[in-house]
Write a structure and sequence with these properties.
The chain contains 8 helices and no strands. It is mostly helical and 317 residues long.
């Protein structure tokens, strides 16, 4: 599941938050997890995603500049070929001094100025720290879920045992009353048996209600744990974003290396080699599609985390 705003357990709606608020308030562990999520984890991830979104904006700008540089390169290369053909035909000397790809190099300089290193200021460590905290809390929720499941099994077992004991005792009272009824003290025995049976029947609903309340409290807490784990944001999705960023940064650095190579040499030969390599990489589509796909992931996760903060904020208030 990705960073969506809903799950099989239901969406993070305000009415759910009000329903689950008393459940979480009864559990110190869940209350502590909610507090840590609101105070440390979610704000850190939200800031990391906002910083990454800014980086992606600059990366998209850089790709647009490179695409414009490719158009200039094609036009200037065509003019160069035409000019060289005419010079060769008229047996003139080769051009000296002027680079035929001057406009292309100006576009490349603009790329370096505005978007040459979009990921350089991205604080990966801060995002990594927030992810590690979130992973720890997911582990805590998994542990709490196991505890609840064990307590539910224990509750069901003890309820069955209680029901069996109650039935045996009730039958024992009836048997004793029958035996005593055959004796000389039958009226007293019958009265005592009726009183005992009535008392036991009166106690049975109360004890059953205690078991029901205990089971419902555990089931409610289990539902809260499931919703907190699955309802608003996904650790796997955030991990996926981190891996995409790593690959995208390497791909973008390769484009940047080509640009630096051309600007450093400023020769027609270097420009031809560099622009040919850039054209292959852009036409391959990995960088552009990677930026667009990552931006879509970031937007979805940012929305999900914002809703999760609102949801948990209602529970915490």
């Amino acid at each position: 599941m990705g960073c969506s705003t809903s799950s099989k357990h239901g969406s993070l709606r305000e009415d759910h938050a009000f329903d689950l608020k008393p459940v979480i308030s009864r559990s110190s562990k869940l209350s502590r997890i909610v507090a840590d999520l609101l105070k440390c984890v979610l704000p850190g991830i939200r800031k990391g995603l906002a910083d990454l979104d800014t980086c992606l904006h600059h990366a998209l700008l850089g790709l647009r500049i490179l695409e414009a540089a490719l158009v200039c390169f094609e036009e200037e290369d065509c003019k160069k070929e035409t000019s060289d053909y005419r010079r060769n035909k008229k047996r003139k000397k080769p051009r000296n001094g002027t680079n035929a790809y001057g406009l292309t190099l100006r576009n490349l300089s603009e790329f370096k100025l505005q978007a040459g290193a979009p990921f350089i200021h991205l604080d990966v460590e801060e995002l990594q720290s927030a992810l590690e905290k979130l992973e720890g809390m997911m582990d805590a929720l998994r542990g709490r879920k196991r505890e609840i499941e064990e307590r539910l099994r224990s509750t069901n077992w003890w309820r069955k045992a209680w029901s069996l004991v109650f039935t045996v005792v009730f039958i024992g009272v009836l048997v004793c009353s029958i035996v005593l009824a055959a004796s000389v003290v039958a009226p007293v025995a019958i009265t005592a048996a009726i009183a005992s049976a009535t008392a036991m029947k009166a106690v049975e609903p109360w004890i059953n209600s205690v078991w029901d309340e205990r089971k419902k409290a555990l089931e409610d807490e289990e539902e809260v744990v499931k919703m907190m784990r699955d309802g608003g944001f996904s650790l796997l999705e955030l991990e996926s974003i981190r891996s995409i960023v790593h690959k995208l940064r390497n791909d973008y650095d390769a484009l940047n290396w080509d640009v630096e190579f051309m600007l450093r040499l400023e020769s027609e030969e270097a420009t031809m080699v560099g622009m040919t390599d850039i054209r292959k990489k852009i036409e391959n589509g990995d960088v552009t599609s990677g930026v667009e796909r990552l931006k879509s992931h970031v937007d979805a996760c940012a929305t999900a985390i914002e809703r999760a903060e609102e949801f948990l904020g209602i529970i915490r208030s």
